[in-house]
Amino acid sequence: MNAFDAHLLQLLVTREMPFGKYQGTVIADLPGAYLAWFARQGFPPGELGRLLALMLEIDHNGLRHLLQPLRPGAT
């Protein structure tokens, strides 16, 4: 994993969904069904779309727990 990848993982636990049903929810906390819906409909362009696609892969592979140590305030 390079520094860019690590930065994306950090964004998953800090960046909030800017619109829609889950507006204000941290991307790492979005439900898998919502991420899958985006995969079917098409991810938004740019960084947000890349983050949602990455989170879908993490969720699909049962790896959400790996993000826990990256969360703000995690010890």
Task: State the main characteristics.
mainly alpha, globular, QSregVF_b, 75 residues, Cytoplasmic protein, 47% helix
What is the element string, with H for helices and E for strands? Answer: HHH
Largest sheet: none
- CA-based gyration radius: 12 Å
- Molecular shape: globular
Strand runs, count = 0
Protein structure class: mainly alpha
Q: What's the helical proportion of residues?
A: 40-55%
If you average the pLDDT, what whole number results? 93
Proportion of residues in β-strands? under 5%
Assembly classification: single chain
Q: How many helices in DSSP terms?
A: 3
Parts with pLDDT < 50 across at least 5 consecutive residues: none
Number of domains: 1
What is the terminal-to-terminal distance? Answer: 22 Å
What does this entry show, briefly?
This is Cytoplasmic protein. By secondary structure, this protein is mainly alpha-helical. Helices cover 47% and strands 0% of the residues.
